[in-house]
TrEMBL record:
Protein family (similarity comment): Belongs to the zinc-containing alcohol dehydrogenase family.
Cofactor dependency: Zn(2+)
Domain Alcohol dehydrogenase-like N-terminal residues, every copy: 28-149
UniProt KW keywords: Metal-binding, NAD, Oxidoreductase, Zinc
NCBIfam families linked to this entry: mycoS_dep_FDH
MF GO annotations: S-(hydroxymethyl)glutathione dehydrogenase [NAD(P)+] activity; zinc ion binding
Gene Ontology, cellular component aspect: cytosol
Record-annotated Alcohol dehydrogenase-like C-terminal domain positions: 190-328
Source species: Corynebacterium alimapuense
GO BP annotations listed: formaldehyde catabolic process
Protein name in the entry: S-(Hydroxymethyl)mycothiol dehydrogenase
Keyword Protein biosynthesis: no
Length: 368
């Protein structure tokens, strides 16, 4: 029997979000209904609202979520009723060519719920990143649920579901930062700050944080940055950028072992590219818009060596990484709780978008 709950949708492109009634159908054989306890306000949800990801409106927003498994389908074996879980949007299939090659983080056939959640008039909703968690309950595939320690704060745990894992994983998994290495992170939103924290966790000795906002630079120091660069008044582009010059100055004239672009716009991409030492590694975790193009001289790409890698979801494996970082937080070894800037109600999501765009928070978290 279907259930009616309250959720937040984006009905049309660019319009303010709406709080309305959502119909949750009975789970299919491998589906799960999760009673949502928390859901972070992520920039990706804003991108859905503004039509920057697809035009499959209306969207049921929200995806950085944690909660309790309430109902399971008849064939579910991965979780049980009552489990405390973090939702993930890349439930790997285990059977596609990427999974068979031992690279499940690149799975081409990730799982989603077998049924659609709808409005009360029957209109099908497109769940953000296959989850749709700005709702009291959500229907997901069992593989989208990762069981973690139930003693964890849901507000903190849920943030591993997207942005924090993206930045943390970009540093630890994609860049494979080693002890004693130098790192520069460009852009200090939630993802960038998580990359700073990940670099510290991995043992980097020099961590340079770059942003135009002095408040974010100070915050980066709290999460482990050893140096900060205020780029708001620095001129130049590409290799001639004053930002690049400052990074090289800090690193003895060489550049960093690792650079991470956590913004996804071409000025920061170029700063990250040219701030590397020769044979240094660059990671792009900031998501570019649909019209951005990478433009650098081919000889610069060829001549500097090293590696350039995108980070999808921080190259994470939820079943491996989510429980690990929850445990590290509870041991006092990773500051997951510090990413929770404020706790808000479901009726404050639109306000949360405004606060996020103003750069006033790392994460606003909706609590249920």
């Amino acid at each position: 029997m279907s259930t009616i709950v309250t959720g937040v949708i984006a009905r049309t492109k660019g319009a303010e979000v709406e709080q309305t009634e959502i119909v949750i159908p009975d789970p299919g054989p491998n589906d799960v209904i999760v009673n949502i306890q928390s859901c972070g306000v992520c920039h990706t949800d804003l991108a859905y609202r503004d039509g920057d990801i697809s035009d499959e409106f209306p969207f049921l927003l929200g995806h950085e979520a944690a909660g309790l498994v309430e109902t399971i389908g008849e064939d579910v074996t991965h979780v049980e009723v009552g489990d405390f879980v973090i939702l993930n949007w890349r439930a790997v299939c285990g059977e596609c060519r990427a999974c068979r090659k031992g690279e499940p983080k690149y799975c081409f056939d990730t799982h989603n719920a077998s049924k659609k959640m709808t409005l009360t008039d029957g209109t099908e909703l497109t769940p953000a990143l296959g989850l749709g968690a700005f709702a009291e309950k959500s229907l997901v595939h069992e593989g989208q649920c990762t069981k973690v320690d139930p003693a964890e704060d849901p507000a903190a745990a849920g943030l591993l579901g997207c942005g924090i894992m993206a930045g943390l994983g970009a540093a630890v998994n994609t860049a494979e930062i080693s002890r004693g290495e130098s790192v520069a992170v460009f852009g200090l939103g939630g993802v960038g700050i998580a990359a700073v924290a990940g670099a510290k966790l991995a043992g980097a000795s020099t961590i340079i944080a770059v942003d135009i906002d002095p408040r974010k630079l100070e915050l980066a120091r709290e999460f482990g940055a050893t140096h900060t660069i205020d780029s708001s008044q620095l001129a130049g582009q590409g290799e001639d950028s004053e930002v690049v010059a400052k990074v090289r100055e800090i690193t003895g004239g060489f550049g960093t072992d690792v650079s991470i672009d956590a913004v996804g716009i071409m000025p920061t991409w170029q700063q990250a590219f040219y701030s590397r030492d020769h044979a240094g590694r660059m990671v792009m975790v900031g998501v570019p818009n649909l019209t951005s193009k990478i433009e650098i001289p081919a000889i610069d790409f060829y001549g500097r060596g090293g590696s350039l890698r995108p980070a999808w979801y921080g190259d994470c494996l939820p079943e491996r990484d989510f429980p690990t970082y929850v445990d590290l937080h509870m041991q006092g070894r990773f500051p997951l709780d510090k990413f929770v800037s404020e706790r808000i109600g479901l009726d404050e999501v639109e306000q949360g978008f405004a606060t996020m765009k103003a750069g006033e928070v790392l994460r606003s978290v909706v609590m249920f």
